[in-house]
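3.2 Worked example (two chains)
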Amino acid sequence: MQNNHKALWDDCLHLIRQNVTEQTFKTWFEPIVFESYDEAQKTVLVQVPSPYIYEYLEQYYVRLMAWSLQKSFNANVRLTYRLVTDKENKKEQQWESDGPSDIDAPQPTTRGNKSPTVLDAAMPQDLNPQLDPKKDFEHFIEGDSNKLPRTVGLSIAEHPGKSTFNPFFVFGPSGCGKTHLINAIGVQCKTMYPKKRVLYVSARLFQVQYTDSVRQNTTNDFINFYQTIDVLIVDDIQEWVSSPRTLDTFFHIFDHLFRLGKQIILASDRPPVDLAGVKERLLTRFSCGLIAELEKPNVQLCIDILESKCRRDGLKIPAEVIQFIANTANGSVRDLEGVLNSLMAYSIVYNTKIDMHLAERVIKRAVKVDNHPLTIDDILEKVCQHFGVTQQQVVSKSRKRDYVQVRQVSMYLAQKYTKMPASRIGQLIGGRDHSTVIHSCATIEKRLKVDKAFVNELNSIENSFKLKR
């Protein structure tokens, strides 16, 4: 019987293939492996190689997949994904597809950019908290830079409005994890107190809602709605500094909630004292609870975050690649996640393993920092450009004198400007061993002592790096 169901699944894939490009099909659908079909539950179980594929399919192709399953199986079939994260210990993750009906169905209390009304306030059980369930405390890795805010945040979630940490004001640079932390507080609070009205809102959306209420003459309804919230979480409040009317309206909401002992959580890229344009009466209220700074994560915390994400997503990335990303991502959690997602996408699309060479390429395109570390690709590109040869010729097995010279210069500069060991440099420049790199460096150093013209050539190449020798 399972063979028949496998044939139906193949029919489903055939329908999908007719409605997407060949590249799209090979990238996102071909890696899916049919496992079984539950007749009673009308559920198809498939295996996917990574959570990235599952999330991408659910975001962009859930309607197409539901339609093709219904056509093939002649029934409303649900789809369940399985990912094996550790074959030896038989560990796996499993997700059930949300389905297009859930995605497309309107939420009764989600009104987009329109202002909430008192009718919304009358239905507390239906309030959508607008929280991301993936941004919880379990995935908020603790380190020296966030230990205090994380500890306080967890305490607030367990006792909202009943601690001295009200309001809780979190500030820090972009990418340090502020949004994750305040979202985690909301998720934990909603888990422990399901009946509490918890709401996460960005400062920009709050302002749009307020502007909309003014236009429709429903400002009182807008204020009344927000005054019914038990735990109000507002992100990026620095965006209000040039909006005095929004700030005045928020003052009345803040004052009401604070007097009732409701929990208020605010996040900004700067401390209250630096919020120019905000009136003193509101600044004093922002500062009367606890102000906590989230610093950029240090290298060790970046490594811990990367390793945690790899375990969660079933990724296998060499330790040296993780170390390289942690040293390069400029202390930004957002950059760390972006680099990992890019590595995963490159690996899937080009069917290649994740190694240092791929990491260098991705970092170069994904992370913008002022003092970007020099990579092997950067060095090869400049050296080859100077001597008029191609990188393919340099990394080839050819012993032609011109290619050997460029190869030796590249290895010498790589050892000088990167922290890589000789063995890694050799692997990335044509798959040579460490002894070849050592010999090349020694050869270049000897020549520099006797050949002034060669010294000038090397200076010219190094100047193109915008670095001093």
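3.2.1 Second chain
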Amino acid sequence: MANGKSHMNKTINIQSAAILVGAGVLGLGLTGCRGDRENEPPRQFFPDLDDQQKWNPQTGSEFFADGRSMRPVVPGTVPFGRTMAVGNEPWAAHWKQERDDLLKADNVFYTGVEGVNEKGEPVYVRTIPASVTVDMALLKRGQERFNIYCSVCHGYQGDAKSRIMEADIGFNPAIVNFHDASFFDQGNVRSRDGWIFHTIRNGKPTEGQPGKFNMPAYGHAVSERDAWAIVAYVRALEASRRGTIEDVPESGRPGLLQKERPASPEAPAPPTPTPGSTPTPAPTTGGVK
């Protein structure tokens, strides 16, 4: 019996010692979490998580033969947006547009080009694609973008009467006037909406001078949708100069005619009599009323 009690006491003592040792180790670990600064490297309990093998963008790599860490897209890969498939529900419109902008599958909408000719030159679409709804909201958006990015050179009316031209810096060739006859000549590339769209996004290179542009590209600031909005607004500016009163709906004609009609001259005010003077009597009508 005594031996049993002695064995039990030894077991309890061993367990107590183990608990005390564990508490001491835990206490030592906690002392390193008090915010004290030291020059020793931090303790790594899971080194494989702290020291992962990875490549940062634009860095070199000895693993691949071409020395690049960023790999080219696998041929035949089709990118997709945040959602694999979306319907036509209103809530999904934003995600659908985001996916379309990533895929850029509609070549006409995203480039303004419908093909190439026998010389291999791009053939620009004649009019704004049918997928673009031209309404007042689009025109207002186009006006806003035009005033921000285009008016500084082309003027607010698109007639090249701008502060830049007034400064007489000496542009060669001169800044384009959107009301020029070339924009209405069906045989001229300027008459095509796709050409204006493409020029907005990609600029206009200077002939015979590689790397130089008559007009810089604005693709970094103007999206495809905004570029079509600007095209629509430019065409509206042109129509405003070439239109007649018959082009205006009948309901809006009276207001325009009223603005164009010159105001009738006002009758001169009667002279103010000076103190001490006798007012001139009004002319009589001989009794005729």
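3.3 Remarks
The radius of gyration is 40 Å.
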